[in-house]
Amino acid sequence: MLLLFVCLGFLSCEEVVDIDLNTAESKLVIDATIKNISYNCIRITKTTGYFEENIPFVDNAEVSIIDANGNNYNFEHSEQGLYCGEFLPEANIDYTLVVVYDNDVYSSTTQLVSTVEIDFIEQNNNGGFSGEDIEMKVFFSDPVEEDNFYFLEFESSDVNIFDARSDEFFDGNTIFFTFSDEKLEAGDEVNITLNGVNGSAYNYLFTLLQQTNSTNGPFGTQPATVRGNIVNETVPDDFPYGYFRISEVSAVNITVQ
Amino acid sequence: MKQTIFFLIFFCTIITADKAYTQEKFTISGTVKEASSNETVIGVNVIIPELQTGTVTNEYGFYSITIPEGNYDVTFSLLGFQSVTHNFEVDKDIKFNLSMEESTEMLDDVIITDDVERLDIDNPQMSVNALKIGTIKKMPVVLGETDVIKSILLLPGVTSGGEGAAGFNVRGGAADQNLILLDEATLYNSSHLFGFFSVFNPDAIKDLKLYKGGIPARYGGRISSVLDIYQKDGNRNKFEAMGGIGLVSSRLLIEGPIVKEKGSFLAGGRSSYAHLFLPLFDNDNIAYFYDLNTKFSYSLNDNNNLFLSGYFGRDVFEIMDNFNNSFGNTTLNLRWNHLFSNKLFSNLSAIYTDYYYGLELGFVGFEYVSGIQNFNLKYDLKHYLSDKLQLNYGFNSIYYSFNPGEITPTTEESGINALKLTNKFSWENAIYVDAEIEFKKLAIQAGLRLSSFNRLGQTELNIYENNNPVNYNHELKIYEKAIPIGTESFSRSETIKAFINLEPRLSVAYRLNEDASLKASYNRMSQYIHLISNTSSPTPFDVYAPSGKFIEPQLADQVAIGYSRNLNLFSLEVESFYKKIQNRLDYIDGADLIGNNAIERVVLSGEARAYGLEVLLKKNKGDLQGWFAYTLSKSEQRTSGRNAEEIGINNGKWYNTAWDKTHDIAITASYDLDEKWDFGASFIFQTGQPATFPNGKYVYNGMVIPSFEERNSSRLQSFHHLDISATLTPSKNKERRWQGEWVFSIYNVYNRMNAASITFRENEDRTRNEAVRLSIFGIIPAITYNFKF
To answer: What pLDDT score was predicted for residue B310?
Structure first.
């Protein structure tokens, strides 16, 4: 809808403007995205003013994951708020993330969510909305009769596209996701990652993606603060941003032809 | 219940009281028409000075007044027409049909009907604005296109989401809370091209009235306002054509007699030029709209008139073969006016309305269709019992069929499954009675409407644990969709859930002196269908959902008080209102509304309130006419938690609605310089639209995510623009049949870059965040040529 709106190009005009924004009190952000690989990292940062250029990071937190059998995996701070450690998740086991920072204990529990393989990728040089951009179609087969949720990441040096989908409209089909961007060029290295996520992670990511380009005005949806699944056990009202998920991933690296 | 009894007693008393005095009285009745076209005239004042009494012609030009035996002068007057005074020897019932001549010095120059030269201070009806199409045509508008909705935005208490926002907001109400009637048929979407134009062809329209409060009992089904628009019947005397050629669209309307003086037709079409909006893109884009208005009217005899009218409008967008979108309203409407006697006027309407939305996405390979259809049977009677008492009563029955969406794959390789969201059905009924009474200095309009809504059977209605479709996650403090524990199916004739509401309406006017009166009103309204939209202005994509097992009807109570005064050349109206709305839907965070078969899982019921002060100062006489309108108001909503533990939406706090405009100033003026030139100007100022701005940012998974302040706690810049127009009527018009005029206009004279939206995003090279303002219209000159022959 918005796209059409902007298309009324000869009348409308976009301009970067200065707007004074309030800055809320800084909050903790825990980006705990664990994949089915043996070495994983968790990033802990803080919120900052919307127009600030640098993201403040936290280097003095204690970070660990405890599984249902009582095994404890520690994550040590390496750089820039990144805490890394040896950790390979297994299916059907509850994992609890525990972060201690500034005397507050933050925690969240989840399980590994499986996903399917990417079948193949098709390139189309007359794609996108304008019909002139390079377009990559990522095909995979959705399992029948179960609710599946996907989070897709498409990354090159210039382009970063994310998409969250539920299989509500394509249950059991071979389906494709389309990525296109005018900045894509032949020779670009592209990483495409399909993450398996559960229903609540999907809701979280879907809502988050809605917020990344927030538009006010007639066709804007009401933006909102997106709460993740990590709880501050010490001061429940002072909840952190971010999310704890464990995803099986299916990744492909290709070069744009 | 108490209210019902009160009203019943009230009606019995006045009816019997009336009986006691009706002996020795006779009735003058008839229809007032315009001489040149035989078009019926609405709102003509029929006044008997000697008795200090009078009446007004109704929507079909009919009047009836019952007075004691005697000899009286009766004056028929309406601004823009030559007044007629006729002497009657009233010793029997008299039938008197009148043809009124338009005033010679002006052609279309009619301003505000309700207060013909002076405000009708005796009329208890308040919070109503009536506009003649002639007035609307004089207002300067964007791209030179006369526009009904844009003109009502100049009235106090009426705002919109800004340029390019569809719909309008009345007294802090939402856009879907307006009842929009075209020849008594309900329209679901009032705009073309996302609000740039309204769906009404100005040439086909005769009259409109906007009720903002004190809404009479004959209207129901929406809780904020009623916009009642009447189309012309068509010229019964001679064939006539009129039209206009503009920068954006052209229109043509033909009308004429079928059987001279008995029947007439009217057919009008309007279309914007395809490709107009998107020529700068080198690919194949099309965006246009068109609409067709048709009407036949036929007088069977003096007591019976038939009208058949239809409207068909569509918007079409096509972007290459990838994107095909079309949507619009269709209405078909048959009406029968019947006079049971010279005191009892009736109108029976059978109306079909259809709203269609279709979208085809070629690059994904599916087609989406949604819509709403209704069949409406309406019977309205106006009973002119005496010069002091008029009763209006009738019933209304509407059958709805909702198609919330159907997805069909369009190509073999499309990965999309066919999906049909469950159709929903409902039946809305209402009966009403309404009395207009005069007691010396007091005039009262009191009415009662009894409305009911039956949500009829459907398949696949979800069942939830504890009947609760939305779960609250106590740990994370978020609302989540509940998982259905099963589904149930009902036959179409079964009622899943029924609602009954009693809607009292009361308006009172007290005449302080010859020139001033005090007015007060109360109305309760109920609305059984909800527009499912979480954008601040409606989009054509939005679907309506009926009330039912999980969604309660919206209820509004409004009180208003007002003061009206005539001041020689001017009239002044000051009104203050307070409105309270129950069961206003709000959406949980991350609600997905598209293709959602169970909307109840993402909505919570909240409340809304609005209050304000409106001032309207008008000048209705002389070469310079126009008005100044100012509104100070507040519109808020709140969705608290359903119990003490839940946080609700926006932490359960009141927040500004997206259409809350603290200050709203509108000035419009027209100046009649000489026979050749007319000038118009209008200025509008509104407090900026409420918006939710980021109050921080963070990084998650490589994405920069804004965090947000409380809902709608900031505002876009204030919105204002000045528009001017000049109309040139060549002097050679007089001698010939072809009448032409040139309209030159400039919208937004001082090129104000009003913000339609502010987008917060990462800049191009992804190094920092920026705020981007989108402005839609800068200064826009336009020229339109209108003709008539």
So the answer is: 92
Q: ipTM of the predicted structure?
A: 0.90
Residues in CB range of B418: below 8 A, 6 or more apart? B407, B408, B409
Whether B277 and A227 lie within 8 Å, measured CB to CB: no
Per-residue pLDDT tens over the stretch B171-214: 999 988 999 999 889 988 888 876 777 888 888 888 888 999 98
Chain segment A93-134, per-residue pLDDT in tens: 999 999 999 999 999 999 999 998 888 888 888 776 666 788
- Say how far apart CA B777 and CA B364 lie, in whole Å: 33
Distance CA A29, CA A244 (A): 11
Residue B537 has its nearest CB partner, among A19, A219, A242, at A219
Q: Are B46 and B55 a contacting pair, CB within 8 Å?
A: yes
Residue B477, Cβ density class (10 Å: 0-12 exposed, 13-18 middle, ≥19 buried): middle
Tokens of B617: 């100062």
Straight-line distance from the first to the last Cα atom of chain B, in angstroms, rounded to the nearest whole number: 59
Residue A103 phi, psi (nearest 5): 70, 0
Beta pairing, strands B128-132 & A174-181: unpaired
Question: How would residue B447 be classed by pLDDT, with cut points 50, 70 and 90?
Answer: very high
Tokens of B600: 């109840």
DSSP-assigned beta bridge partners for residue B384? B390
Strand partners, A161: A154
Residues in chain B: 789
Q: What is the mean pLDDT of residues B673-677?
A: 86
The residue among A156, A121, A66 whose CA lies nearest residue A250 is: A121
Tell me phi and psi for residue A195, to 5 degrees.
Answer: -105, 135
- Confidence check: pLDDT of A59 > 80: yes
- CA-based nearest distance A119→chain B, Å: 14
Query: Both tokens of residue A72?
Result: 């404890």
* C-beta neighbour count of B179 within 10 angstroms: 20
User: Do B540 and B189 contact (CB within 8 A), yes or no?
Assistant: yes
Q: Token pair of B232, please?
A: 């012309």
> If we measure between CA atoms, which residue out of B331, B63, B295, B42 comes closest to residue B184?
B331
Nearest to B419 among A169, A178, A223 (CB): A169
Looking at residue A8, what is its pLDDT?
Answer: 39
Note whether B776 and B239 are within 8 A (CB). Answer: no
> Is the Cβ pair B480, A203 closer than 8 Å?
yes
The string of pLDDT tens digits covering residues B692-725 is 888 999 999 888 888 888 888 899 889 999 999 8
CA B716 to CA B691: how far, in whole Å?
6
Distances (CA, A) of B314 to B155, B167, B288, B321: 28, 16, 9, 19
β-strand B769-775 against A13-17: which pairing, if any? antiparallel
DSSP annotation string for B548-614: -SS-PPEEEEEEEEEEEEEETTEEEEEEEEEEEEEEEEEE-TT---TT-S-GGGSEEEEEEEEEEEE
Q: Using CA atoms, how far apart are residues B643 and B641, in angstroms rounded to an integer?
A: 5
Tens-digit pLDDT profile for residues A9-45: 345 678 888 888 999 999 999 999 999 999 999 999 9
Asked whether the beta carbons of residue B707 and residue A26 sit closer than 8 angstroms, the reply is no
For B590, the closest of A17, A206, A215 (CB atoms) is A206
What region, left, alpha or beta, does residue B659 occupy, with left being phi > 0 and alpha being psi -120 to 50 degrees?
A: alpha
- The arithmetic mean of pLDDT across residues B632-647, rounded, is 92
* DSSP symbol at B8: H
Q: Do B161 and A217 touch (CB under 8 A)?
A: yes
Regarding predicted confidence, which is higher, B282 or B563?
A: B563
Window B:311-340, CB contacts with A under 8 Å: 317, 319-320, 322-323
Is B645 an 8 Å CB contact of chain A? no
